Amino acid sequence: MKKVLIITYYWPPAGGPGVQRWLKFVKYLPDFDIQPIVYVPENPTYPIVDEGLLEEIPEKAIILKRKITEPYQLASVFSKKNTKGISSGIIPNRKKQTFLQKALLWVRGNIFIPDARFLWVDPSVKFLKKYIRENGIDTIITSGPPHSLHLIGLKLKEELSVQWFADFRDPWTTIGYHSALKLSSYAEKRHRYLEKKVLTSADAVIVTSKTTKEEFQAITSKPIEVITNGYDIEKVEKHPLDEKFTLAHIGSFLSDRNPKIVWESLQELISENKQFAGSFQLKLIGKVSQEVLDSITAHHLEAHCVNLGYVSHKEAIEHQRKSQVLLLVEIDSAETKSIIPGKVFEYMVSERPIIAIGPKDSDFAEIITATNTGAFFTYTDKEKLKEVLLSYFESYLKKDLKVYAVGLQQYSRKNLTAKLAGFIAHS
């Protein structure tokens, strides 16, 4: 059985979408004659914790843990709330940022290069060099963000004759929040230098969307494979659909994802249609920024809103399957066209229609359309959005609101792992 060392930061009990990708790959890799050895921090700073995911770690996986020194641990002494929010990607609105928030963002972008886990690089390289030699490992995979982990792979590649795959769950310098980090010209150049160094030094690169592949092809000639996130077979108790006409957003709801087009449409439908007003409920599940909550209040939707906060992955799946309609939102920016939210695949197998909002030519719009799992709208399609919401509501009244998905099997975690195993074997 081939041994593969996987270097990742997010691992159970971490919650959120970042942990799912490699947890599921590790689950299925032994089926393809690959022994996964997972290297993770022993004392990480996770903004979201889901203890239930510990039960999903497969017995066949070998888990290595080493302590990490993180500046976030020190910064949290000054402001635990702000530090936790920034580390989870919730960037405060630029016009409303406090002096402390501005300072933390400046430090995050200009001192913590490429991110706050950079102090883990050298100790990890020292430990892993010995482990790799003693255990006959010839293939390593690094997963980012945090992109510091790619620097571990870079140094191991330079010092040992190993095959190295760099897996980018999200882009590096083109990710939505990069421009919010108040980068100096030196920091900006340093980020781009490290990004190019990783992309040109890895034996191959794995990305989650075709747009990221196109962006990286302008930087490197190394092989790049698109392996999206996906869905797994989830054993959860079946619940009846919500009695109300629920529109549910599940996952982190960041300030920059604030879809005023949705709030305006809902406000108008509630005003224009008494039956809709009496039946509608907005469900928020996960971390929600204050700006999003303020917008909901400004559009007089608070009486129709239930904010459940963060729930376990299992509970999130239950809500996906019993909500009437699911809301998916991505930032309205050219830089986010490549982002395919991990939850879109779980949404697609929930058998509930998806309302998706994002920038024009978004990669995930193509997936939703091709699988017939919902409707996509740009941030200027308000009248079309209202029409679809109303048509879904009318189907709900007839108890006939459902979707007829096609082509989902290609996104199953096992099939995606087969693709990964084939790429490893032939690269």
Summed up, what is this model?
This is Glycosyl transferase family 1. By secondary structure, the chain is of the alpha/beta class. 40% of the residues lie in helices and 16% in strands.
Task: Describe this structure as you would to a colleague.
- The structure is a single chain.
- Helices cover 40% and strands 16% of the residues.
- With 427 residues, the chain is an alpha/beta fold.
- It folds into 2 domains: 2-70 and 115-230 and 413-426, Rossmann fold, CATH 3.40.50; 245-397, Glycogen Phosphorylase B (Rossmann fold, 3-Layer(aba) Sandwich).
- The protein has a 7-stranded parallel β-sheet with strand order 3-2-1-4-5-6-7, with helices on both faces. The protein has a 6-stranded parallel β-sheet with strand order 10-9-8-11-12-13, sandwiched between helices.
- Helix 7 (185-201) links the parallel strand 5 and strand 6 (204-207).
- Helix 5 packs across helix 6, helix 6 crosses helix 7 (185-201) and helix 9 packs across helix 15.
- Residues 74-90 have low confidence and may be disordered.
SSE layout:
Elements: E1 2-7, H1 20-28, E2 34-41, E3 62-66, H2 71-75, H3 80-87, H4 99-110, H5 121-135, E4 139-144, H6 148-159, E5 163-168, H7 185-201, E6 204-207, H8 210-217, E7 224-226, E8 245-250, H9 260-272, H10 274-279, E9 280-285, H11 290-298, E10 305-309, H12 313-322, E11 325-329, H13 343-348, E12 354-357, H14 363-371, E13 374-377, H15 382-397, H16 413-426
Parallel strand pairs: 1-2, 1-4, 2-3, 4-5, 5-6, 6-7, 8-9, 8-11, 9-10, 11-12, 12-13
Helix pairs in contact: 5-6, 6-7, 9-15
